[in-house]
Amino acid sequence: MLKEFKEFAAQGSMLDLAIGVVIGAAFGKIIDSLVNHLLNPLIGMFGSTDFSLAFLVLKGDAGGATTIDAAQKNGAIVLGYGAFLSAVLNFVIVAFALFMVVKGVNKMRKQQAEATAAPEAPPADVTLLTEIRDLLRSRGA
User: Fold this and answer.
1) What φ, ψ does residue 118 adopt, rounded to 5°?
2) What's the pLDDT score for residue 12?
């Protein structure tokens, strides 16, 4: 069983997966920083991006609390829709940022593929005429 595990772990795909996970974690930090340090402040210039404090008291008295935790400590049952809105907004921003990154990578790959692609073969009639010309040259005509 140990031998089988060593063979499995030594396979290239296992190493590729491990590298992908590590790079994915690092890339996640980059995207998180992009959202929190660049995009959210820009959006915050036009309004608040921190909806997490918004809540609705369903039952009980919040006692003038300004946070969900404080309202719950006062015995109120609250609907914390603000935290949900923040999560949705962050998801949309992250999804859009990833979309732009993937779009850029696909564009670069397409340009690379076009640059390395073999030239198109000439049409059949041009190939035939070239062969005829070469035959005539070889016969000395």
Assistant:
1) -70, 145
2) 64
Q: Given this model, what pLDDT does residue 131 score?
A: 92
Return the structure tokens found at 56: 């609705």
Q: How confident is the model at residue 27 (pLDDT cuts 50, 70, 90)?
A: confident
Compute CA 2 distance to the chain's CA centroid, rounded to the nearest angstrom: 37
- pLDDT tens string 84-140: 887 887 788 778 877 888 899 899 988 888 888 777 888 889 889 999 999 999 887
- Helix ranges, 1-141 (H): 2-10, 12-33, 40-44, 68-73, 81-116, 124-138
Return the sign of the alpha-carbon dihedral for residues 69, 67, 80, 62.
positive
**Other Cβ atoms closer than 10 A to 52:** 15
Q: Cα(141)–Cα(27) distance, rounded to whole angstroms? A: 67
Could you tell me the residue ranges of all domains in the chain? 13-118
DSSP 122: P
Q: Rounded distance, CA 35 to CA 27, Å?
A: 12
DSSP state of 50: -
Fold of 13-118: 1.10.1200
